[in-house]
Structure formats: C-alpha cells, structure tokens
Amino acid sequence: MAEVVKVYGQALVSSPRRVLACFIEKGIEFEIVHVDLLKGEQRNPEFLKLQPFGVAPVTQQGDYTLYESRAIIRYYSEKYKSQGTDLLGKTLEEKGLVEQWLEVEAQNYNAPAYDLVVNLLVYPKLGIPVNADLVKESEEKLGKVLDVYEERLSKSKYLAGDFFSLADLSHLPFNHNLVNAIGKAYLIEDRKHVKAWWDDISSRPAWKKVLELK
Ligand SMILES: N[C@@H](CCC(=O)N[C@@H](CS)C(=O)NCC(=O)O)C(=O)O
Asked: For residue 70, which atom of ligand 1 is closest to its CA?
C-alpha cells in the first residue's frame, strides 16, 4: 500500500486546491495538515523548513517532500499514472501540448488572476487596502489572455486537445474564484467557448469534492 500523502495548507485556498483536485482525480489518498495562512502560520520556522519561501502547498509522502503546486501535480500524475484519470496525455505530442498549456497557465494566466484574487478576496480579510490600479490592469491583462483561450477552445474541447488534462485542472482554483468569489464571472462567461469549457471542467465530480473539503 502506498503511503498517504500529507498536504500542508488549507482546503479553501487556491494553490493547495490545485493539488487536491489532482489527488482526487487520481484516487491518491491524502491527509490535509492544516496551515492557517490568514494567521501567518506559513511563516513559522517549522513550516519554513518544508517550504523556505513560506507559501502553501507542500506535500510529504514518507520522507519525500515537494513544494510548488504545479511540480507536485506533475510528479504525482506521473507516479500514479496507471490509476484514476490520465492527466498527462498519451502520446509525446499530447504530453507536449499539456506542458505548453500548463506553462501558459503559470506564465500568462496566473499573475493577473492571482493579483485580482489577492486584492479582492484576501486583502479585505486582512484589512489591507485594495490596489485599484492593479485590479484594473490585471482585469485587462487577463481579458487578453482569455481571448487567446477563446480562440484555442473554439478548436478543441480542452486546452491540450480533446481530453481533460493537468492543463485544464490547473485553472480550476482561480477560475472558481473569478466566477464565484470576486464578482468577475464576466471574464469567463462573456467568452462562449471559455464558458463551455468552464462549465465542463467545474462540473467534474473531483472538483465538486474539493469544494466540499474544509
Ligand atoms: N507557486 C506557488 C504559489 C503558492 C502560493 O502563492 N500560495 C499561497 C496561497 S494560494 C500562499 O501560501 N500564500 C501565503 C502568503 O503569501 O503568505 C505554488 O504554486 O505552490
């Protein structure tokens, strides 16, 4: 029996949710080790020994520790490739496209989506003033990124092709916040193919289970 994977972080937070969605899709057994990010527990010396940059998630299986959510989902999808949903693509060409869109998520989509969510969801909870200029700029930037997605998704059902993969999964946490937490659903819903893609990926049973975790 494979050892249960510990996930340090919080089930309500975006980057840990990326990992949890992957684990549920793959049927990987996990246990959440609660790190309260609003209380700043990610800066405790014990946590910094696991993740020296002081952000969640971190995973641990036996004595193997990993951080960076996208590295984690790549590693565990490969390690458990024979079980659950295949998230990596089958041919080398499919795998290349999964990697390409995972990189687009990390390099183009993430920064403006992250800035919007931090400003409009996290800062209000911490009493930090919202940076209205950054919100406006991020919204415009993200709109342009999503125009590229609209074009891509008019040609294939999912980002890397006609199969659900890590590339799609990686967008679930921030798309969810745009639509359901910060009032920016229009960014998704005003784009016909992006909306159809979002409706499809957000109704996956694994993602619904992530949203039920506390
Ligand atoms: N690139 C990192 C980003 C992790 C990240 O930014 N985590 C946020 C939660 S979504 C966090 O821990 N924030 C706490 C802080 O910035 O103090 C990853 O993908 O794992």
From this structure: 19
CA distance 115 to 118: 5
Which helix or strand (DSSP H or E) is residue 144 part of? helix 132-153
- Which tens digit of pLDDT belongs to each residue from 8-59? 999 999 999 999 999 999 999 999 999 999 999 999 999 999 999 999 999 9
Domain finish residue from 84, 111, 126: 84
Binding pocket residue ranges, ligand 1, CB within 6 Å: 13-15, 37, 42, 54-57, 68-70
Over residues 149-182, the pLDDT tens digits come to 999 999 999 999 999 999 999 999 999 999 999 9
Mutate which of 55, 66, 70, 115 for ligand 1 pocket (most atoms within 8 A of beta carbon) = 55
Structural domain for 145, as ranges: 92-210
Indicate whether 104 and 55 sit together in one domain. no
Exposure b/e, 175-199, CB count within 10 A at least 16 = b: bbbbbeebebeebbeebebbbebbe
Question: Which of 49, 84, 119 represents a domain boundary (last residue)?
Answer: 84
Per-residue pLDDT, 1: 64
Distance (Å) from CA 55 to ligand 1 centroid: 4
Could you tell me what percent of the chain has a pLDDT over 70?
100
